[in-house]
Amino acid sequence: MAVQLGIAPIGWSNDDLPELGGQIPLEQCLAEAALAGYAGVEKGGKFPTDPKALGRLLARYGLRLVTGWFSGQLLAGGVEAEKERARPQLDLFRALGVRVFVYAETTGTVQNRREIPLSRRPRLSPGDFAAYGAKLTALADWLAAEGCPMTFHHHMGTVIETEEEIDRLMETTGPSVGLLLDTGHLTFAGGSVERTIRRWADRINHVHCKNVRPAVLADLRAADGSFLDGVVAGVFTVPGDPEGCVDFDGLARLLGEIGYRGWVVVEAEQDPQRANPFEMAALGFHALQTALRRAGIAIER
């Protein structure tokens, strides 16, 4: 079995907080991602949306487009309207050979609202999951038929944040709804990475690797802070950082056990003035490469 290592541009530039790396050119991000060893990058706000322009730009640095975030609004609208919203990104992804479509439900989200604490995030009542799951499955069926299957991104500050909410979502959706396993968001929410992998092994089709600094998380919880307060304070870091608490050797062994194939992506939003993006990218690459090789997993370019 083999995986590919990718990285998200959020360590260089944060689309929700432009003051974090807004001045860093995209070309610097791509050059440093390639230099650190990654085979691909996820899409960010600075990326061109024309497939030919983006393809040429990535080829200049020997990189592939892994996938990219889509801010879903299915709770607030219908499936057909959501297909229309998703179509431009889907067309871009198909043109560049992207294998999964990252979908996050952002209706009412507080992830991008620094003034709103995480304790005031939106929630789905248990009785709402079945109806939402039916709509999400219909959208995922369409994405699969279009050749770019859904991978659902659980995320702090959204309606799908906790391990219990992930379980309910998977239980009320069909197999076309894949799961993006994000080690950082799941750990932040108090969930178990191991339990989630074992329970939903057949649904996991994309992996985000971010580390969590438990001391920063404890302070954020005590202060009832917002998600972006946590980002600015440094709650997230990359694999390999000794201040982090996520077990990436254990993650690699579990990915080997379930036969995972696909992208493993470093995605750790940080302040680039405090955490040098290239140094962090290189640290994350080395840590994941080491962990995956120890688990007997080959890494493809």
Please give a structural write-up.
The chain is α/β, with parallel strands linked by helices. It has a domain of 198 residues: Divalent-metal-dependent TIM barrel enzymes (TIM Barrel), CATH 3.20.20. 41% of the residues lie in helices and 17% in strands. The strands form 2 sheets. An 8-stranded parallel barrel has the order 1-2-3-4-5-6-7-10, surrounded by 6 helices. The chain has a two-stranded antiparallel ribbon with strand order 8-9. Strand 1, helix 1 and strand 2 form a beta-alpha-beta unit. The radius of gyration is 18 Å and the shape is globular. The chain starts with a strand and ends with a strand.
Set out the fold topology.
Layout: E1 2-7, H1 26-36, E2 40-43, H2 51-60, E3 64-72, H3 79-95, E4 101-105, H4 129-145, E5 150-153, H5 163-171, E6 177-182, H6 183-188, H7 193-199, E7 204-209, E8 211-212, H8 214-222, H9 227-233, E9 236-237, H10 248-258, E10 262-266, H11 277-294, E11 298-300
Multimeric status of the protein: single chain
CATH superfamily of the domain at 64-261: Divalent-metal-dependent TIM barrel enzymes
Low-confidence stretches: none
Main β-sheet: number of strands, strand sense, barrel status? 8 strands, parallel, barrel
**Mind telling me the C-alpha Rg?**
18 Å
Mean pLDDT: 97
Element string (H = helix, E = strand): EHEHEHEHEHEHHEEHHEHEHE
Adjacency order of strands in the biggest sheet? 1-2-3-4-5-6-7-10
Short description:
The protein has 301 residues and is an alpha/beta fold.
Main attributes of the structure:
single chain, 301 residues, alpha/beta, eight-stranded parallel beta barrel, 11 strands
